[in-house]
Amino acid sequence: DRPFVIRNQGRNLHNVTIATAGIDRDIRPGREFRLDRIGDRLDPGVHAIVCKYHADQGMDGRLSVVVE
Known about the structure:
The structure is a single chain. The chain is mostly beta strands. Helices cover about 5% and strands about 45% of the residues. A hairpin with a 4-residue loop joins strand 2 (about 15-20) and strand 3.
């Protein structure tokens, strides 16, 4: 089980929101959001990820969780 990590390498405040997991965390410049044991937090399937501050600029994606 590999961790899911988002690092903020920029100079602006960012956010990671995964609504299906109740996650809404700000990530300050130079910091990271880390989700270990992802299968314990998210059900198998595709989950939408968005930066609530920059969604209108295309800062969103999908995270696929697969149980092997």
